[in-house]
Input
Amino acid sequence: MTEDPRAAEQRPEHQVRIGQGPRNRRELVVKVLWIGVWLIFLSSPVEDLASGHHTLAATVAGGIGLAVFVTAYLTLVFRNIGRSFAPRVVVSLLAVLGVLAPLLTYTLGGAWVGLFIYLSVACGATLPVRAAFWAIPAATAVMFLVGLRWHEKPDESLLLVPLIGFAMVGVGQLIRTTVELRKARATVAHLAANEERLRLARDLHDLLGHSLSLITLKSELAGRMLPDHPDKAAQQVADIEQVSRQALVDVREAVTGYRRPRLAAELAGTQVALTAAGVTAEMPAEPDLTGVPEEAESVLAWALREAVTNVVRHSGADKCLVQLTHRQTLDGPMLELSVEDNGSGGAGNGPGNGLTGLTERLEKAGGTLEAGRIRHGFRLVARVPAVVAGDVGSGA
Output
């Protein structure tokens, strides 16, 4: 599970971000294929042009019109699906589609009726919901009227065009909602960081404000006493030293508390990290940490963080099982954390720095670490005492 970081960087991401532009060539290809596969409905117009039923002028005009139609459609769907409504661009391109679809169908034949499917998709994917609810039925009605010109009875198209259009309305709404949720999550994270900075500033003020004020006051007193009362000045200096030492202890304790991770918070962060990496996560319920020492909880939180980091970066897994269990052993009650994945990434030739440091943390807390390959993946098991060391032997 401590694969070469360069290999981890070269491993492709599992997911293409919804509602955002492609980040690399792979995502660009995926998006182009996803949109391009629906161009299958253009087979009828292309066959009609190649059949030779039209004059040379009509064939050339039809080919140019089809090329312009496809270009406008791909520009609309590729650049604007699920994004904020840009009136000028979207309306202009939709106008091109809305003119070419009936014009080409009316002049070249019923084989071109399929263009209305793309017109409906473009309306559903790019227009606001209220506008799309009017535009899609209007496109269906125009298709029906144009089809009468060639004595066509487009029964299937009358059903297919509105269904696909309204389906794209739902897809567009889903993408817009996903984008808004991503923005909201970023905002929440930013607000949480600001709140944490405010809390740190508040705690430091409470810790150091009184001590620094006292040090300033005693320094002034010592300065005034020094010429005439050196003994009293020495006492003030001794008091200053004591206050400063206590302030240093308070700051160290506060910083230790900030750096100490909490298991419940790590479990929540694990769920988010695994989901974002495309890994299906099975997580335990709210942990029962009654009586568990803070040091033991902190060490398990570090173990969970290290294990999940390895799963996301190095394992190549798509499933991860996290379990938290209370066990009664010969050494007393233990709290056991198990992280198991089905990835192919291994621990290499030996434990890495992360697992080595984690083993040392667990040993200091009286715990143990087991990590290694299993039949279908990798498992890490960390155990810590579930009670304070002095209470072992007097429990159940």
Observations:
- The radius of gyration is 34 Å.
- The longest helix spans residues 155-225.
- The chain has twelve helices and five strands.
